[in-house]
TrEMBL record:
The protein's name: Methylesterase 14, chloroplastic isoform X1
PANTHER family: METHYLESTERASE 14, CHLOROPLASTIC-RELATED, METHYLESTERASE FAMILY MEMBER
Alphabetized InterPro entries for the sequence: AB_hydrolase_1, AB_hydrolase_fold, MES/HNL
Chain spans, region Disordered: 1-23, 61-80
Domain AB hydrolase-1, residue spans: 96-332
Coiled-coil parts of chain: none
């Protein structure tokens, strides 16, 4: 009896050991990939710093468009594999990544890496007064000013070229603004748990369920910033760190939360309080898609569902287990959806 028990224990131990080895290998692989992405983020940050020193803030910085990891589609990828066949079916290969309130181009570092590895071309902007753009956020009073880096890029885009826009959170208002003014240059607009507002709405209205009415927020919020003095209207707002963690990063890795805590900047108030004027002839002809995040505390799933119900897009996708920052919490899932949308004829 005892020998049999010992034999069974050895077999179980062997099986458990094999499983443990497989699990350990998998964990090591995931850790190695995460470490690689964080090293790349650091490299991007250093590159941005060098650019800011070189140009002294005279131009809007973009990351992704000049990365050494970008590949020509006719050439093999860096890992020795050929570009995926599906790339031939994607007409617009440029993804313009627009961050949300308080964020900057830095937040897209995982998405940039994954899109480039697929053979696509990601470009991330710092909107005015965001990221390492040197503009004082208190001086940004309109959506046009806030969106200027995106608008300048679209204005200079060749007439025969179209791009895919991806807007996160309040960056969705920038997408709507761009769709209204440059519908012919936008292949698809992807709203990532974003302010996909209707005509006459303010981006802030989307967050009213969490933050209260705009009027009440302007009167009572302790997060307001008075850049022109207390006797003047507020110019921006900034959540406390603990509140940001709860609202935006409840499922994000600790390293990414730490990166956000030292990188996020005050949010210009004017752009999010501005009512958008959107026409059926321009905005209405755009191809819109919405990605819902189902563990989101900043823009609840119910609010997101209301947005797509009141302003129906062409397609709706969902990311389970994602907080308000899916580029941190669920980068692979986000990447898969972006590539899938890009392939839609």
């Amino acid at each position: 009896m005892g020998n049999r028990f010992i034999c069974m224990s050895k077999k179980d131990t062997k099986d458990n050991g094999s499983r443990s080895k497989r699990i350990n290998r998998s964990q090591r692989k995931l850790l190695a990939e995460e470490e690689f992405l964080h090293k790349q983020a650091l490299s991007m940050a250093l590159n941005q710093h060098q650019l800011s020193q070189r140009f002294e803030g005279s131009m809007s910085r973009r990351i992704g468009s000049t990365s050494s990891r970008r590949h020509n589609f006719s050439d093999p990828l860096s890992n020795g594999k050929q570009a995926p066949d599906f790339l031939e079916n994607i007409k617009s290969k440029k993804f313009i990544l627009i961050h949300g309130e308080g964020f900057g181009a830095w937040c897209w570092y995982k998405t940039i890496a994954l899109l480039e590895e697929t053979g696509l071309i990601p470009i991330a902007f710092d909107l005015t007064g965001s990221g390492i753009d040197l503009t004082d956020s208190n001086a940004v009073t309109t959506l046009a000013e806030y969106s200027k880096p995106l608008i300048d890029y679209l204005q200079n885009l060749p007439e025969d070229e179209k791009v895919i826009l991806v807007g996160h959170s309040s960056g969705g208002a920038c997408l709507s603004y761009a769709l209204e003014h440059f519908p012919q240059k936008i292949s698809k607009a992807i709203f990532l748990c974003a302010t996909m507002v209707s005509d006459g709405q303010r981006p802030f209205d989307v967050f009213a369920e969490e933050l209260g009415s705009a009027e009440r927020f302007m009167e009572e919020s302790k997060f307001l910033i008075y850049g022109n003095g207390k006797e003047q209207p507020p110019t921006g707002f900034m959540f406390e760190k603990e509140q940001m963690k709860g609202l935006y990063f409840n499922q994000s890795p600790t390293k990414d939360v730490a990166l956000a805590m030292v990188s996020m900047r005050p949010i210009p108030l004017g752009p999010v309080m501005e009512k958008l004027s959107l026409s059926a002839e321009n905005y209405g002809t755009g191809r819109r898609f919405f990605i819902q995040t189902l563990d989101d505390r900043a823009l609840s799933p119910d609010v997101q569902e209301k947005l797509v119900r009141e302003n129906p897009p062409e397609g709706v996708y969902k990311i389970k287990g994602s907080d308000h920052s899916p580029f941190f919490s669920k980068p692979q899932s986000l990447h898969k959806i972006l590539v899938e949308i890009a392939q839609i004829p």
